[in-house]
Amino acid sequence: MAHYFVGDIQGCYDELMRLLDKVKFDPTQDVLCPVGDLVARGPASEKVAKLMLELGHAVEPVLGNHDLHLLSIYAGLFKDKKNDKLKKLVQSPMVSDYAKWLRTQPLIRYYPEFNIIVSHAGTHPFVPLETQMELADQARQKLASKDYKIWLERMYGNEPRKWRSHLTEEEAFRFIVNTTTRMRFIDDDGALDFETKQPPSQAPLNLSPWFELKPKTTTPTPIHVFGHWAALLGKTDDSNFIGLDTGCVWGNKLTIYKAETKEFFVQQSLP
Ligand SMILES: [Mn+2]
């Protein structure tokens, strides 16, 4: 049995299948752990969605911003934009099953056997991990509930940028969704920044990539596995932060990390 963490698939079905072949993925024994953004922007989101439903217990994803956005489109809050390339999936008869499955998936997973924490964008270095895991679990329950449309509507917006213990339920929900699915840069005060689009080397001086800020705690932090930031091409300069979004949908690569052996496997984007 092996755990295969895979970067942002974004509808790149053929590349995913080649990689699964390469690692000899066996759904009766192994687990595929996508780091979010399973669909959108790529050529075959509907095939990826179908595969996820077929894999059943052999797949353990966390939600990314595009996965949440698909749920909002499915819920009728938005029309799918041409760039999203979600039309086939949204019109497919299995979309209701896929949305139902997606709604029960978490924002954060923790694998104690590897001391690995997984989320799509990352976790906030200044907020205790236990707090974030609790908030993420509350968010999962909201999205799995019959009130999920209300919570999807409340999800949109950049505020609050900073964590405080007296946020309202809605503010806390938005904070944990934004942190785990959209975060890239954080300022010196710990406020999330969503405006900066530059790579880390060209970012304003008061901003740092979330994984470069040291947590205000003495307990050792787990190994973080994340996606979302294709411009990094997986590079964090810190082996405790494993970036798996290597930009397959942008013509680069899809990456798998096998936790048992700490090996990386890559598949070049197909023409
Ligand atoms: Mn993303």
From TrEMBL:
GO terms for molecular function: bis(5'-nucleosyl)-tetraphosphatase (symmetrical) activity. Residues 5-164 form the Calcineurin-like phosphoesterase domain. PANTHER family: BIS(5'-NUCLEOSYL)-TETRAPHOSPHATASE [SYMMETRICAL], METALLOPHOSPHOESTERASE. Its EC number is 3.6.1.41. Belongs to the Ap4A hydrolase family. Hydrolyzes diadenosine 5',5'''-P1,P4-tetraphosphate to yield ADP. The lineage of its organism: Bacteria, Pseudomonadati, Pseudomonadota, Gammaproteobacteria, Alteromonadales. Keywords: Hydrolase. It catalyses: P(1),P(4)-bis(5'-adenosyl) tetraphosphate + H2O = 2 ADP + 2 H(+). It comes from the Bacteria. SUPFAM superfamilies: Metallo-dependent phosphatases. This is bis(5'-nucleosyl)-tetraphosphatase (symmetrical).
